[in-house]
Amino acid sequence: MTDSGKEKSASRRGFLAAAGAGAALAAGLGKAGAQGAKPDPLITDIQDWNRYLGDGVADRPYGKPSAFEKNVVRRDVEWLTASRQSSVNFTPLHALDGIITPNGLCFERHHGGIAEIAPDKHRLMVHGLVEKSLVFSLEDLKRFPGRMNRVFFLECAANSGMEWRGAQLNGCQFTHGMVHNVMYTGIPLRAVLEEAGLRTNAKWLLAEGADASLMTRSIPMEKALKDAMLGWGMNGEALRPEQGYPLRLVVPGWEGNMWIKWLRRLEVGDEPWQQREETSKYTDLLADGRSRRFTFIMDAKSVVTNPSPQAPMLAKGPNVLSGLAWSGRGAITRVDVSIDGGKNWQTARIDGPVLPMSLTRFYVDFDWNGSDLLIQSRAMDETGYVQPTKDELRKARGVNSIYHNNGIQTWHVKANGETENVEVL
Ligand code: MTE
Ligand code: CO
User: Does any domain span residue 88?
Assistant: First the structure.
């Protein structure tokens, strides 16, 4: 991308030549060996894994990643993870590819720790402005018709929240890792509400969790009936305890806080309840002291995951720039990438499923000539919305809030490949 077309094709040839050498290595010769130097011991010597029997199937009833992937883990920031009353860790976005987040790597945000609930002891109550109050066991819910599987991102409203006043955390895991994307199995929320029978003045829904925080949020009935789900499955298996086992609310495209985990109660009402999490928290305090109320939708956002501070550039020549884009308003239609801090843009290649309200993967295949880069990405969604710069956001909202920061991220790649969180002023 930084090189001229001529240099680019020359370097591509270099890459292909190296790949050809790889085939020779596989034949036990090696490039150097062919020239009479010492052969590559990794190819010519018999290794332990070649010599001894490996584990049998009985040793690994539930599979784990290779021990060599031990650094691909959720991480927290010490000063942000104060206590079990309020804890958060982050998805290692820089170490993942494609669009699905593996279950053990989904970021967690808990307001009262992880509830460990036996599924047979769990109930969901539906009451309030309904014809008949109902209580469901998990087995009851699994017998409902209309079971569905949907991939959605969940993003905490506070994702990138530490960056409002300037570049702060060095790694996309920490700046953007309060997002995950899994396939949920469950039923439409609408199904249980209709079973209970909504009264004509049923306009809002209160969802409550069974954990120690008793997390409660008001959800407009229109959204509840449109596409919200009661989810018990996650990427084909049961939800993890961290994600609300055995039952969570799925609120596609809307802020993570509304996706009540360990869901135990749904109350139907005619107005919002004004709970703590929708008044003193999860409202955006503007510069003039007023607050934006009910900022439910997560606007389009993107981030380059590679390179990024935890995944620096390793070599000149052919490189794959990669990133994620998502929008709470629908599907991503285009992602542009800049390497000069937003002066020039080129359209990235999107690969893999492009689903509404899901993470979407993009790539730019390029040759790096070793010069400094200021890498940015800019997402666009099907409503025509374009991801703003951080300064545009600050002009509109000030810097009091920690929520809903979907501004364009900049990574500075230095000549030695090191990559840093910066802002272009
Ligand atoms: N639901 C309950 N019951 N308790 C909680 O602490 N945290 C909320 C939401 N639902 C929370 C909850 C917040 S702020 C977010 S961002 C998401 O769950 C996080 O979901 P995750 O832990 O699956 O990533
Ligand atoms: Co949150």
Answer: no
Nearest CA among 39, 9, 47 for reference residue 21 = 39
d(CA 384, CA 367) in angstroms, rounded, equals 31
**Are the C-beta atoms of residues 103 and 237 closer than 8 Å to each other?**
yes
Same domain as 405, residue 278: no
DSSP state of 365: E
Question: pLDDT tens across 103-140, in order?
Answer: 999 999 999 999 999 999 999 999 999 999 999 999 99
pLDDT at residue 252, as a whole number: 98
| Ligand 2: centre distance to CA 154 (Å) | 9
Q: Residue 359 corresponds to which tokens in the numbers above? A: 């993470």
Asked, for residue 75, whether it belongs to a domain, the answer is no
Q: What's the pLDDT at 397?
A: 93
Pair (332, 352) in one structural domain: yes
Q: What pTM was computed for the model?
A: 0.91
Tally DSSP H helices, then E strands, for the chain: 9, 23
Q: Which residues line ligand 1 at a C-beta cut-off of 6 Å?
A: 106-111, 154, 156, 180, 209, 211, 213, 215, 242-243, 256-257, 259-262
306 is in which domain, residue-wise? 301-422
